[in-house]
Structures are given as C-alpha cells and as structure tokens.
Design goal:
By secondary structure, the protein is of the alpha/beta class. It has eleven helices and seven strands. Helix 1 packs across helix 3, helix 5 packs parallel to helix 6 and helix 9 packs across helix 11.
C-alpha cells in the first residue's frame, strides 16, 4: 500500500479502541513487524500512528532489553509489558527487535532462548494485554524466531519502502514545530509542507531529519556569531532568527539529493 501510516494505524487502532470486538469474535489481535532498509521511517511511522490512535508509546531497542546478569533480560521484558499495561492504551515499540528475538537453536547461548521464551509469554498474555500492542522494527526479518512472527503475535508484517509523498509530509509535520519543543525543529509558520515533501522525493525518514537538523545548526551558527555576550542570551529575542525557513532548507536538501543520486548511479548500487 502507498500509505503505510494508515495501514499501521488500522492494525494498531482497532485492538486499542475496540478490543471487546476481538474478544467476542474469539480473535487474538496481531502485533506488527515493520521491516525494510535503515532510514525508511519505521520508527517515525509507528510514532505517527500511535499518536493518531491516541495511544501512549514506550520505545526501547532490542539491545536495551539485554542484561548481563542471569535472568536480567527476562526481567527487563517483563517490566516493559507491566509498564505498558499500567498506562494502556499503549504501544510497545521495539527497535531492532531481531537483537532480542533471534531464531532459537542457532547457538549455545541459552540466555537468548530464555529471552525469546519470556517475550512469547508476555505477548501471549492477551487477557492482561488488553489495549496493549507490540510493534517491532527490523531490517533483518529473516533473523527473527519464527514463533514471534506467527498469527496472534507479530502476525502483521509490513514492508517499509522509501516514504511516499504523503508519508514525507507527515514526517515533516511531526518533526517540526512553530513553538519551542525539545524534540522538534523550530520552523517558520509559513513553511509549505506540500512543496517540501515534493522536493524530498527519494528521501528516507532519516534523510528528512538530517536536513532539518543541518538547517537548524546553520541558523544556530549564524545567531551565535552575532551575539557579543553568550552569557546574556535572550530566548525570546533570538527565537525568530532561529526558525528554519524553506530557504534555509534548500541547501541541505540539495546536498542530500545529490548524494542520493550519486549512490543510485554508483556501480555498486542495487
């Protein structure tokens, strides 16, 4: 489908706001496995879908769930689900899920088998997981234990290609703000998201974030050079000068576009 956000939203929203329908029908909702190359917006798409479904989101990486001590990984996974249940409706987003759910029996590492077993136990706890959905992201779906990918677990498997025009527009809107926000780039209120989305054709979600960050850093450098006393920075006075405009974004977008073109035209590109 062209609109992965809508596809993902449907797979998340129905079990979150209408779980009684699944109960009566005797169907266990499937979690979601998003797979595709790095930078295609798997994490961003989940964040957008969770926000649109009015759900809390808990984000961790597969590496975060690993513990060095005996039983630590299992305890981390159990605590993750307990937290999600306490703030439901909630989405558990596990980036690089292949790191915590690799195929069992491929090594002598029993700790890996135990962590996969704990994950299966938690995700199978449907009665206690009402309005709690699991989303895993990976660029190596073949590495994940097959039991994780079965129906009732991460049975909805969605491939994430390079974002479409609408997806790029959603990403741009999600990652920018007209007011101060620690996690978003401060931008000009007149920013034309439609035109920006068109100018970033072929960009991944990571490319879009890089362009916004590069433009913001360039503005920071300009403003800093104009300040005589850095100990007396007035946030209100500098805010307008720090806003990223379409003009500010043109150079980083052009640079990344040229880089992407070179990668596509290189002999080793497939």
């Amino acid at each position: 489908t062209n609109n992965k956000i809508e596809e993902l939203k449907k797979n998340l929203q129905y079990p979150l706001d209408s779980y009684e329908l699944f109960e009566v029908a005797g169907v266990e909702p499937d979690g979601v496995l998003l797979y595709g190359p790095p930078g295609t917006g798997k994490t961003l798409t989940t964040e957008i879908a969770a926000n649109q479904a009015d759900a809390n989101i808990i984000q961790v990486s597969g590496a975060d769930l690993h513990g060095e001590l005996m039983g630590q990984s299992e305890e981390n996974i159990q605590e993750l689900y307990e937290t999600a249940r306490s703030i439901s409706p909630a989405v558990i987003l596990i980036d690089e899920i292949d790191q915590v759910t690799p195929e069992r029996g491929q090594s002598t590492n029993q700790a890996i088998d135990r962590s996969v077993g704990q994950f299966l136990q938690e995700i199978d706890g449907y009665d206690s997981n009402k309005r709690v959905m699991t989303v895993g992201t990976t660029n190596r779906p073949e590495m994940i234990d097959n039991a994780i990918k079965r129906p009732g677990r991460l049975g909805n498997q969605i491939e994430m290609p390079v974002p479409s025009l609408e997806a790029r527009k959603d990403i741009l809107q999600m990652k920018t703000t007209e007011n101060v926000d620690d996690n978003k780039t401060l931008v000009d209120p007149e920013l034309n998201y439609e035109e920006l989305a068109e100018s970033t054709e072929g960009f991944t979600g990571a490319d879009i974030e890089d362009s916004l960050e590069a433009a913001a850093k360039r503005n920071i450098s300009k403003v800093r050079d104009q300040i005589d006393d850095l100990s007396k920075i007035n946030s209100e006075e500098i805010r307008e000068d720090l806003r990223v405009s379409e003009k500010d974004l043109k150079k980083p977008i052009d640079i990344l576009s040229e880089k992407n073109d070179q990668n596509h035209n290189s002999p080793g590109f497939q």
